[in-house]
């Protein structure tokens, strides 16, 4: 009798958990609160979150679209633990809003394997677009190669992580796959098994029947002077492997595109940008090397970027330059743009660092109006006392006021 009562209590508890966290009859996105969000994040491979406020017009416009997408996703991926579309009422769940650093409504974020993705969803806001996004997120992030010769054809302009394993069912590969899922937007991931990887594996011994798995980082060799590097930490420790791969896949100097410009502007740091011709890889390599050698201590104060000067012709025009003037270097402070006078001066130690210091102390702004400071002529800038420096063009690529309610004081 006692055993029967224990079983009854057990099944009752299971039923209550399922009732609280999973309602198969419900339609639309799942409402998440402080009571169920941690369980939802921990028990699903992918959680797509909509942070909204009832008073926000853009939130109200998005709500039925996101609910429709949730139904489509549920139909496409019916298995429990795969994917959930969740919504958070930030006025009621202020602790959750604070935890996820919500500064605008609606904000769409991704959590993979319990880990928050750095990048927000910034694509088209339609039910079909959301469904396609989820499908893409759930694709296998790792491409398999079948011989070492296959690796010779990989894109030399991409940062790549390559794994060598004996078998797919090794626990180390499971860790590798989870990390790849979380960082698929930052790097390309490739893997070889068995014979395809044997040439890279040290042989197994009596106490080691399998060759030891190997993880290698291959830099974007067409754009950098970096070399390959092998991971030496634990292959069973998710956090350790993720930190190492993230450091390799998110470079000190990043490329700005129209796709990631909004994300970069939201980081709130001034841009030091190399505008280059699309085919000019040597300038990119040298710029990256100089930044790494001389400006590492500035990485908390500025974003180091490269930009295709052909695609970003408008900022060049704003600076009074054209494609024929490439390569050039400039600062966008989100108020004004300042031109580094001579690209070749980049190769003189200290010149780029002084350029940044002159931004911080206001010298660039003063000299634009009044000419060089009387004490030094280190930075020569064209003088026009009747105008201000060119206004920032990249701040216009920040969050669109036609898509968000920004949390400014007058709205609160």
Overview of this structure, please?
- With 412 residues, the protein is of the alpha/beta class.
- It has three domains: 30-138, Glutaredoxin (3-Layer(aba) Sandwich), CATH 3.40.30.10; 142-249, Glutaredoxin; 254-397, Glutaredoxin, CATH 3.40.30.10.
- The chain is 33% helix and 18% strand.
- The chain is built from 13 helices and 17 strands.
- The protein has helices at 2-21, 37-42, 57-76, 94-99, 127-137, 171-183, 195-198, 238-249, 261-266, 281-294, 313-318, 351-360, 363-370; strands spanning 30-31, 46-52, 83-89, 104-105, 107-112, 115-116, 142-144, 160-165, 188-193, 214-218, 229-230, 253-255, 271-276, 303-308, 328-332, 337-339, 405-406.
- Strands 1-3-2-5-6 form a five-stranded mixed beta sheet. The protein has a five-stranded mixed beta sheet with strand order 7-9-8-10-11.
- Helix 3 (57-76) crosses helix 5 (127-137) and helix 6 (171-183) crosses helix 8.
- The radius of gyration is 26 Å and the shape is globular.
Strand % is: 15-25%
Taking Cα atoms only, what radius of gyration do you get, to the nearest Å? 26 Å
The ordered string of helix (H) and strand (E) elements is HEHEHEHEEEHEEHEHEEHEHEHEHEEHHE
> Structural class of the secondary elements?
alpha/beta
Number of domains: 3
Main β-sheet, in a few words?
Answer: 5 strands, mixed
CATH architecture grouping of the largest domain: 3-Layer(aba) Sandwich
- The strands making up the biggest β-sheet line up spatially as 1-3-2-5-6
Mean pLDDT: 85
Q: How large is the count of helical segments?
A: 13
| Helical percentage | 25-40%
Distance between the termini: 60 Å
GO molecular function: protein disulfide isomerase activity
Signal peptide: 1-27
Protein name: Endoplasmic reticulum resident protein 44 isoform X2
Pfam families: Thioredoxin, Thioredoxin_6
